[in-house]
Write a structure and sequence with these properties.
- The chain contains 10 helices and 17 strands.
- With about 350 residues, the protein is an alpha/beta fold.
- The chain has 2 domains: about 1-110 and about 310-335, Medium-chain alcohol dehydrogenases, catalytic domain (Quinone Oxidoreductase, Chain A, domain 1, Alpha-Beta Complex), CATH 3.90.180.10; about 130-285, Rossmann fold (3-Layer(aba) Sandwich).
- Strands 3, 4, 5, 6, 7, 16 and 17 form a 7-stranded mixed β-sheet that branches. A 6-stranded parallel β-sheet has the order 10-9-8-11-14-15, with helices on both faces. It has a two-stranded antiparallel ribbon with strand order 1-2.
- A hairpin with an 8-residue loop joins strand 1 and strand 2.
- Helix 2 crosses helix 3 (about 155-165).
- The longest helix is centred in the middle third of the chain and has 20 residues, at about 120-135.
- The protein is globular.
Amino acid sequence: MHAIRLYSFGPAENLRYESVPDPLPGPGEVRIAVHAVGVHFIETLFRQGIPIGPHPAPDLPTTFGREVAGVVESVGEGVGAGVLGSRVVTSQVTSGGYASLAVAPAAGLTVLPDGLEYDAAVAMQSTGATTLGLLEVAPVTASDVVLVMAAAGGIGTLLVQHARRVGATVVGAASGPAKAARVRSLGADLAVDYGTPGWTDVVRESVGDVTIVFDGVGGELGRAAFELLGGEAADRRGEGTFGPGAEGGRQVVFGQASGEWFHPEEDELKARGVTSYDGIAYLLGRQGGMDDLRDRALEAAANGELTPAVQSFPLERAAAAHAALESRNTMGKVILTP
């Protein structure tokens, strides 16, 4: 089979496409013919040898990727033959998913709903599940004015779609005119380029006060978004997982595309009457885990309620995929296709 191997830490060009022996499924495992594999920004850091929190840099050589969708083509000891030929998705690959074949525990497989494409399945099992979890934190109603930061990204595009579907007024903010155009095509009432000076003035003049901010950017841009909450938002109360929504609106933080988090101080929150939620902390501590969110996300994509944004690269161009992620030059979930 073919796989992407990393033999030394460094730039994206260190990722090598080569022929390697087929992995063998062990007891309780299956081997999947991979049709799509997800690429995560954290893998670009591991590629450079940078440890992330409690996670050390990987031992070398290595093949990245834990998240694949494909067809079960062989099984290990203790796994029934009935699973052979099943279209599945998993985030528990043990052999490295940047490959044409991947091994994973049979217990970690999810069978795809009919009609769901492999790339959409990879996007929705993580990005889609995360989106639905964030919407538990701050449910959106038709009376809301919603600002989605990083709105051309994987989570952002799904948040825009959902908010539009329930009838909210939706503002999508993204970096650059091409991404803003993408957000506009999703049906946002207003799409702005937050790299343009005065973008917050455009938002305020167009829609007034914002009632919910989903912040996947952080830094000074996150602060600017936060400052759009308040005022008339006091008339639009919402109910969130953590209790009644603040009179001045709700902020849900889920990312730091700028390179740093933005969490307002308590006195700022009180002054504006805003409630701020850490979306990642909620997801990590969510009672019952995220399996039900994953299943709901896959069904939402299969029935057309949500359509994930996907940017695909051939497996052999994994280095280009990493470089595009690092330069923030991607729109939606990045996928490799063997």
